[in-house]
Amino acid sequence: MNKLVRSRSNRKVAGVLGGLSKSIGIDPTITRVIFIVLLFTTGVFPMALIYALLVFVLPNEEV
């Protein structure tokens, strides 16, 4: 398992899900689909808050 960082190359919004998928070793599309499903099934707020916190907590990937 790699260090959890925000991806610079595989990002749609802030690179959180791209970095998460790289550290876990799965396809980023799968991570994004799971996130969207959880986003709507939890009522948007909890997952949106977690994502926003990770944007500020996780460092950017070094080049």
UniProtKB/TrEMBL annotation:
Stored InterPro entries: Phageshock_PspC_N (IPR007168), PspC (IPR052027)
GO cellular component: plasma membrane
Membrane topology: Single-pass membrane protein
Localization in the cell: Cell membrane
Keywords carried by this UniProt record: Cell membrane, Membrane, Transmembrane, Transmembrane helix
Pfam families with a match to the protein in the record: PspC (PF04024)
Entry superkingdom: Bacteria
Transmembrane segments: 35-58
Ranges where the Phage shock protein PspC N-terminal domain occurs: 3-61
PANTHER family reported in the protein's UniProt record: PHAGE SHOCK PROTEIN C
Protein name: Phage shock protein C (PspC) family protein
Organism this protein belongs to: Cytobacillus oceanisediminis
